């Protein structure tokens, strides 16, 4: 058992390996943050869903990048590391489509679906090692979603139509 833990410590003590664990942790943290916002607003996809999406996208991106180094013949690389990322995007579209509901002429779940897509993009960019750009994107979108909630709470339409202060008792 001691040898097992020593081998794990030896593998994560190398900078490149340690960086992979940092990337996965950042993916989990950012996915958790997106999911927490959705959970607070009682949306269908929450903390677990978004965390799984970002960590899965991060992991698949890391595997894609490192597979090229590990399995290609030196000087004769025939692998494209971005092919797997393209497949992640296709899968995210499928997952997002499952969150969209059309009922009685209205459409619900578009924000949740787009946030699943965003969570996947966060995972891909963290997996590729773009920490600063990813953090900036997270902060910008968190600000946008916060402003959006504020405006939605104050207005019903895009053109400043205020919600009634009290629902009429006839409804």
From TrEMBL:
Annotated Gene Ontology cellular component terms: plasma membrane
InterPro entries on file: MgtC/SapB/SrpB/YhiD_fam, MgtC_SapB_SrpB_YhiD_N
Cellular localization per UniProt: Cell membrane
Keyword Transmembrane set for record: yes
Keywords: Cell membrane, Membrane, Transmembrane, Transmembrane helix
Predominant localisation class: membrane
Membrane topology: Multi-pass membrane protein
Record-stated family: Belongs to the MgtC/SapB family.
The protein's name: Putative Mg(2+) transport ATPase
UniProt source species: Aneurinibacillus soli
């Amino acid at each position: 058992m001691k040898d097992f833990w020593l081998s794990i410590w030896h593998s994560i003590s190398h900078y490149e390996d340690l960086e992979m664990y940092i990337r996965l942790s950042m993916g989990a943290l950012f996915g958790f943050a997106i999911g927490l916002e959705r959970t607070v607003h009682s949306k269908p996809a929450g903390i677990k869903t978004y965390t799984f999406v970002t960590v899965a996208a991060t992991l698949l991106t890391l595997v894609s990048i490192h597979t090229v180094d590990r399995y290609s013949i030196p000087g004769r690389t025939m692998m494209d590391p971005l092919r797997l990322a393209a497949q992640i995007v296709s899968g995210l579209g499928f997952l997002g489509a499952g969150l969209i509901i059309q009922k009685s002429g209205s459409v619900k779940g578009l924000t949740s679906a787009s946030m699943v897509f965003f969570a996947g993009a966060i995972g891909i960019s963290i997996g590729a090692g773009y920490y600063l750009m990813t953090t900036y994107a997270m902060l910008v979108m968190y600000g946008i979603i916060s402003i959006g909630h504020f405006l939605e709470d104050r207005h019903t339409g895009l053109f400043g139509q205020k919600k009634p202060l009290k629902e009429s008792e006839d409804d």
